[in-house]
Each structure stands twice: as C-alpha cells, then as structure tokens.
Amino acid sequence: MLAVAFHGVPGLVAALGGGLIALILFGLPSLLGWIKLGDLKLAVACGLLLKFPLVLWGIAFTCLVGGALGLGYAAYRRQLGSVLGNLGRAAAGTFKRGTQPRLRELSELTLPYGVAIAIGSVWAVLSHYFPQVLIF
Questions:
Q1: Domain for residue 15, yes or no?
Q2: pTM for the whole thing?
Q3: Which residue among 3, 5, 20, 33 is the one 20 to 30 A from 110 at the CA level?
Q4: Rounded Cα–Cα distance for residues 125 and 50 (Å)
C-alpha cells in the first residue's frame, strides 16, 4: 500500500518485483529446510518494502551479514574448523563424490536468519540514502 500511495502503479510493480525476487531467492533454502518460514516471510516483507532493484542490495548485504554471524557463532562455539572444512568440501564439490558433512556438529550451530535479514535490509536502505557514509 505504501508503494501505491507514494509512487502509484510503478511503485506497486517495483514492490511486487522485490517481493517476488525475495520469495524466489529465499524460498529454495526454505524448502530445503535451511531457513525457517518466519525468516522467509520477513525476507519477502523486506523485499516488498525495499522494492526492485534495492532488494538485490538487501539480499547481498543479508548474505554478508549472515555469513559473518554464522562464522562468528561457529568460532564462539569452537567449531569454526569443522564449519570451514565443510564449506571447503562443498566448494570443491566433494559432497557429490560421497563425502558427507558432519551434520551432527552442524545441526547444533543454528541461529535465526531474521537478524541477518533485518540488518542487511537496513544496510541497503542506509547505503542507498547515505552513500557517502557507507562504503557499499
């Protein structure tokens, strides 16, 4: 409604585009069980508010924040080596050849992705309206 009130039909199209992009990019991880449905709903809501094309920056910043939070939490739990090893094997494609990640260790390392989504969305808005303050 805000997009229509301030920008008319083009604003509505941009908002729906942002929501659709967020739904597609966060929907697959949600279907795979990597993120919860609440995080998906938050991502779509942020996509609707950010609108296209700012939603792309929001998703990029969300990924950066989520990765930093995940690595920081793994270091805090003293499992950074295991997580980095699994990431390296995944990047090398060795999971396809039969090497499996140590899921028991990884299942203990969960944190809500909503925090990363919120910070990434705010970062996108701030970098859009105050580009001289933020590097990205």
A1: yes
A2: 0.79
A3: 20
A4: 8
Report yes or no on 136 lying in a domain: no
Q: What are residue 52's phi and psi, to 5 degrees? A: -80, 135
Q: What is the per-residue pLDDT across 68-110, written as a single tens digit (0 to 9) for each?
A: 998 898 889 888 888 787 777 667 765 555 555 554 445 566 7
User: Which SS3 state, helix, strand or coil, does residue 52 take?
Assistant: coil
- DSSP letter, residue 34: S
The reply to whether 88 falls in a domain is yes
Residue 35 pLDDT: 86
Is residue 46 classed exposed, middle or buried when 0-12, 13-18 and 19+ CB atoms within 10 A define those classes?
buried
When divided into structural domains, the chain yields a total of 1
d(CA 45, CA 119): 14
pLDDT digits (tens, 9 = 90+) for 36-47: 899 999 999 999
Separation between Cα atoms, residue 130 and residue 83, nearest integer Å: 35
Instruction: Supply the range of the domain harboring residue 64.
Output: 2-129
